[in-house]
Amino acid sequence: MDTYILAIDQGTTSSRAIVFNARGGICGVGQQEFSQHYPQDAWVEHDPEEIWQTTLSSCKAAIAAAGLSAADISGIGITNQRETTVVWDRETGAAIYPAIVWQDRRTASQCAELKAQGLEELVAQRSGLLLDPYFSATKLTWILDNVAGARQRAEAGELAFGTIDSFLLWRLTSGAEHATDATNASRTLLFNIHRQEWDDELLGLFKIPRALLPEVKNSCDDFGRCDPQWFGEETPICALIGDQQAATVGQACFKPGMVKSTYGTGCFVVLNTGAEALASKHRLLTTVAYRIKGEVTYALEGSIFVAGAAVQWLRDGLHLIGSASETQALAESVASSNGVYMVPAFTGLGAPYWDPDARGGIFGLTRDTGIAHIARATLESVCYQTRDLLEAMRGDGADFATLRVDGGMVANNWVVQRLADILDCRCERPMITETTALGAAYLAGLQLGVYQSLEEIAALWEYADGFDPVMNEVDRARRYTGWKNAVARVRTQ
Questions:
Q1: CA 250 to CA 244: how far, in whole Å?
Q2: With the C-alpha atoms ordered 195, 197, 201, 202, is the resulting torsion angle positive or negative?
Q3: What gap in Å lies between CA 163 and CA 179, rounded to an integer?
Q4: What is the pTM of this model?
Q5: pLDDT digits 0-9 by tens, 8-53
Q6: Among candidate residues 410, 409, 387, the one with its CA nearest the CA of residue 309
Q7: Which of 297, 252, 284 is closest to 406 using CA atoms?
Q8: Where are the alpha helices (DSSP H) in 289-370?
């Protein structure tokens, strides 16, 4: 009899659930998009209730698609969009304000004030992160300061804070569990990644009452049991892990020096640094890759805020395409982008620039420019942004010849070949590109005893395609110089 694990992959634009078997094979999928809310310039919000309902629906659909019942599911693993911040009532479970999404920039001025006070070095030393609106702490402070009565209620212990993993865990267990894992905690600006605990000095700096915070557990751990009212069974919840760390596990990047890049709404490059929390000299993040049985594996991460979201903008904002899949044929229909560069700084620039006030731009337009050139430039922007991150990693001493790639965008062969060309690096695509959900399933299986070790999981990783660079160095350098010039035109700092 096979073992089945339900992986919940709660992302930025959709909630997805996948049932995997013990070999990592996909047995059933459920997915549902949900609304994006932009109440002001650079504000991005989600409705926590919609996230919850779409998650429930996706789980039920995945189990049904696999031809199974909840009784067949051995355990649940949860992976999630990170940094997105929710505060809810401990009695009712209702959020007191919409979820403030990781892309949201409303707290840029607060971050700038803290930088001006010379506090970024302290924050970086403790949390591994930089002072940027991307992370949870200033979002949480904003909610406490702007929702009537929230701070008083938080100090009285009436409210709970969590990233999306915590919120889903609370709901699935009907309030029995208020917990997170070390990877999600490491993205809040409140967690000491060296001591592996909430940091009192950082809590004081951001004025966060400790009573709000979840317990921090290992990435695979006992997270309680699902209330049978949801699926009909008390299924154990065995893993929580942030989405980019989950993809690192799904890509089996378990040895120091191994690196993966995920292309979803944003793009995130994660380099395993082993037991060493390596401090970047090039404004990358030091983060927890995973924590298993109390042992921490660290990583360097570069975060790009807009990757697939730029293609979504071509579709939904400009109506230049009907579906994302059209971009490959458009890109291939022209010999080049004809000097057009698109810098998708819709919510500021992430690593290595960290410029929250930057805004997007399209440069080099002429009367000859057509939809195909803009589509090609949009896809190329993802490749150039990835090179920005790999250049920073190499500057920090990383040495790698292969990049493992995954996420929705890598179904596009043209994109992966372009990545190899712009990066001057071999790109490998796995057999299963749903590596985020797969990583959560693998960790749940490790907790359940389905797998005995990370080495056993690594043996399941299957190579599908490899893409080697074919562009000449002169052309590569010229194109990248053009990109750097375009970025310089949108930067504010």
A1: 10
A2: positive
A3: 10
A4: 0.89
A5: 999 998 999 999 999 999 999 999 999 999 999 889 999 999 999 9
A6: 409
A7: 252
A8: 308-316, 326-332
